[in-house]
């Protein structure tokens, strides 16, 4: 790891200038934004792409004969190709635009469930899933009389792979696991998870919401059957996301939402649905969102995910050392493979109180259960304070966080 | 004192802090620490108002036609604000409580804690206080 750190060449001060919001003041203090796991800030390249869309491109897509509509359709479809290439998916039609990770997961659970899930079937998720990757499956299981199985974790917040292997059976119809835990930062061994499931011909969904901002994802190398993420966590706009599915699955699956754009022919007796990807994209989509997402991906690639990974590793190490030195502070989530997310609790102090005092100092963190209540139950805590770091964060900001926590403890104890 | 008078009194006390957030929050934390707000026997699940993050327990009883509130929270800043609200509202009639506006929270610069996104249970607590008052009013009539 050390050599990577030495080779890290990012000019962070220059990068920060791309993000207008980072020069803001909050509560009279310079903003220290450490809540990137909730949503990341947007570079001006993304803001300009969206603004430019409304000033020069706005038209509906896939249906107009006029010039603007044609140009916008091309821009939107190019955005799909940008996503496809970024993830190394085999075909552009495997990239479905949705409103975000949550809708991607609801789409999959509904559509896949309708086609393949029967009474007595089993669905495997993990103990560290976000509620968005629990509830759609839970509802599906209730509706179909299927059973939800949960891969347990150890005290470091790592999946127990032996237990996972034992859960896989001929009743298992799908495995749905997060790539990176939003609460713990754990990077799960998704390639191994997929390989083990594929030995039994079980498809796998990976929830990549927290992975895309931090690591390179190669869908063909992973051999994932489904993968999803939201644009806003990778520096793109809110309200747009992606569901990737292998063509063979998506072709077989029924539409989830239906309406304009999803059909070939409609009569009152029968409807013939459109081919992929339009079968799953009912209604006028979030066109500027798709274009903004492509701009965000281009931006990330310009900086380079390898550089980002090396720098974030350095940040994580620095932050872990700095925070561990604070008396009474306990880090929740100490996996060997970990992204730059640090959750922690402080002895005898409620996370909300720490978050409030940090906020008064201009430091934005997330407090609470992070939509992972079963995980909080595992650790026996009501919630944590979470600092989630990305490439525009600095060691100086981590120092401010550490000092801010010290101050909060002094005030609250 | 009327509710409005107590609200004004608190607003005046907080004026002393000016823009000094630290002193203001230290005061709130102090209120949270030193006020044993609720009798243990009332700290039960049916009196629990769940915020997304911090919990608030609220108990009310009628004493000589006045409603007396006691409450507690697991987060100390929330508890400090709860203490202020109880000081304002407790010991008044149902009608006075139903009509209370809690304008002082805005005046003393703590309105953010009553925002629905704050997840501290305070918004639900205010609602529950008024519902309790309404229930006592209906009992009386």
Would you tell me the overall average pLDDT of chain B?
A: 88
- Using the CA coordinates, give the radius of gyration of chain A: 22 Å
CATH architecture of the largest domain in chain A: 3-Layer(aba) Sandwich
**Strand residues, percent of chain B:** 5-15%
Strand order across the biggest sheet of chain B?
1-2-3
Q: What is the count of structural domains of chain B?
A: 1
Task: Identify the most extensive interface between protein chains.
Answer: A-B, 17 and 16 residues
* Relative helix content of chain B: 40-55%
Proportion of helical residues of chain A? 40-55%
Largest sheet of chain B: 3 strands, antiparallel
CATH topology of chain B: Sufe protein. Chain: A
**In which order are the strands of the major sheet of chain A placed?**
4-10-9-8-7-5-6
Tally the helices of chain A: what do you get? 15
How much is the radius of gyration of chain B in Å? Answer: 15 Å
What is the number of helices of chain B? 6
- Give the assembly state of these chains: heterodimer
pLDDT < 50 runs, ≥5 residues of chain B: none
Termini of chain B, distance in Å? 25 Å
Uncertain segments of chain A of ≥5 residues (pLDDT<50)? Answer: 1-7
Could you characterize the architecture of this molecule?
The complex is a heterodimer of chains A (413) and B (141). Chain A has helices spanning 2-7, 12-17, 44-57, 67-87, 101-116, 135-144, 161-167, 190-198, 219-222, 247-252, 287-303, 305-324, 351-360, 373-379, 395-412, and strands at residues 25-26, 29-30, 32-33, 95-98, 122-126, 147-151, 172-178, 204-207, 226-230, 241-245, 263-266, 271-273, 329-332, 341-346, 363-364, 366-368, 384-388. Chain A has 413 residues and is an alpha/beta fold. Chain A folds into two domains: 2-42 and 304-412, Aspartate Aminotransferase, domain 1, CATH 3.90.1150.10; 47-301, Type I PLP-dependent aspartate aminotransferase-like (Major domain) (Aspartate Aminotransferase, domain 2, 3-Layer(aba) Sandwich), CATH 3.40.640. In chain A, strands 4-10-9-8-7-5-6 form a seven-stranded mixed beta sheet, with helices on both faces. In chain A, a hairpin with a 4-residue loop joins strand 11 and strand 12. Chain A is globular. By secondary structure, chain B is an alpha+beta fold. Chain B has one domain (3-140): Sufe protein. Chain: A, CATH 3.90.1010.10. In chain B, 50% of the residues lie in helices and 14% in strands. Chain B contains six helices and three strands, in the order ααβββαααα. A three-stranded antiparallel beta sheet of chain B has the order 1-2-3. In chain B, helix 1 crosses helix 3 (76-89) and helix 2 packs across helix 3. The radius of gyration of chain B is 15 Å and the shape is globular. The two termini of chain B are 25 Å apart.
